[in-house]
Amino acid sequence: MRQRSLVILTSVLTTGALALTACGSRGGDDKGGDDKGGTTVVIGVDAPLTGQNSATGLGIQSGVEIAVKDANEKKLVPGVTFKVVALDDKALPPTGQQNASQLVANKDVLGVVGPLNSGVAQTMQKVFASANLAEISPSNTAPELTQGKDWVSGNKVRPFKTYFRTAITDEVQGGFAADYVFKTLKKKKVFVVDDKQTYGAGLAGIFGKKFKEQGGTVAGTDHINVGDKDFSTLVTKIKNSGAELLYYGGQYDESQVLTKQLKDAGAKIPLMGGDGMFTPTYIQTAGKAAEGDFVTSVGVPVDTLPAAKEFIDKYKSGGYKGDYGTYGGYSYDAATAIIKAVGNVVKDGKVPSDARQQVVDQLQKIDFEGIAGPVGFDQYGDTKNKQLTLYQVTNGAWKSVKTGTYNAS
Question: For residue 323, what are the CA distances in angstroms to 70, 254, 331, 404?
């Protein structure tokens, strides 16, 4: 998983390192680009490639790299060679905003995949919109990103027409989880914790609200800070609450430590979270303490989809970095959507002056069967694929328990 990629399609950028000014540059000799002349179109990637959340961030990068390699080998867009420029946002919103500006300044970029974190996306959306540059996130789930700040009241307004996502929203994911905990697990009392971030706080809030609507009781709520490692005070509070389950809104970096400290303290209750926890790294770090814990994640298990078999084989044999199981397939499909849109815009290698806007328009109409399911977007830019899956740690691995849909209305 940490081996050097066999095919390196990523350019490591520093300020001023890339000064491309022509929209669709000619030729070039970037390593691994398979560039044999013609027009170069860049697909940008923004994700945490180091530090917090990097296991899933690298999975996003690798999914895009494989899609681009496939497109170049199959010559999906005649006269065009695709390249990847991946930038590390370190899961920090200000860095994401800087990366967005850098990608906008590169005139060869006709689409961007990412970011991983909803909080980072909030700082990037306006930058991309001002340049008519399309972005597709394979992982953002905060409803307000596509439906506006008043979505809870039913007043849904799309803030940015350049923003799309292949992941479902927290409204669906939180409700699906609450329904399962109350009706299937028969848990009546839960404790809810979040990491104060856009994704984590939003997901935890929706879960708590939906759980209470079912008739359950939220025994207590609390918050942690990203980077925290000592949860002794919180663990005591959870134990004393009498909760039958801990729901956590946030990423795996903190939850994998929290669940271990919780079990070590004698609180033998499962921890449940969302797709931000769905990575083998969670189990590797928590060890036996992770056994019995739950997550919900977007779509159906990628390794059960016949269309994804070739992708997974390439991922494993190519030594690509990160975890493909969380967002790798959705990243591949996001990049493929951009490639298909470019194919409808760039003819005979000629890039029109308004190519970015045309790509946005084409993405709104896109409709194809991806390796992780159908790819298409509704009037808000949300995915039309509403499936999601609940997983449980069983014998040291994530095992799918239930796949379905949830009506959030």
Answer: 19, 18, 12, 23
Phi, psi (degrees; rounded to nearest 5) at 88: -95, 115
What span, in angstroms and rounded, lies between the C-alpha atoms of 191 and 109? Answer: 45
Cβ atoms < 10 Å from Cβ of 349: 17
Contact 404, 176 (CB under 8 A): yes
Do 91 and 5 meet the contact criterion of CB atoms below 8 Å apart?
Answer: no
Considering just the CA atoms, what is the radius of gyration of the chain in Å?
Answer: 21
Query: What is the DSSP-derived secondary structure letter of residue 32?
Result: T
Calculate what percentage of the chain has a pLDDT beyond 70: 91
DSSP classification of residue 168: -
Cα separation, 386 vs 381, in Å, equals: 13
The structure tokens listed for 176 are: 């699906």
pTM: 0.84
Say how many Å lie between the first and final Cα of the chain, rounded. 40
Q: What is the pLDDT of residues 338-350, one digit of tens each?
A: 999 999 999 999 9
Per-residue pLDDT of 103-139, as tens digits, reads 999 999 999 999 999 999 999 999 999 999 999 999 9
| Alpha helix stretches (DSSP H) within 215-366 | 232-241, 252-264, 280-286, 309-317, 324-345, 355-365
3-state helix, strand, coil in the chain (%, to 5): 40, 20, 40
CB-based burial label for 218 (10 Å; 0-12, 13-18, 19+): middle
- Ordered structural domains, the chain, with CATH: 25-168+302-375 (3.40.50.2300), 170-298+388-404 (3.40.50.2300)
278: helix, strand or coil: coil
Looking at residue 80, its amino acid is V
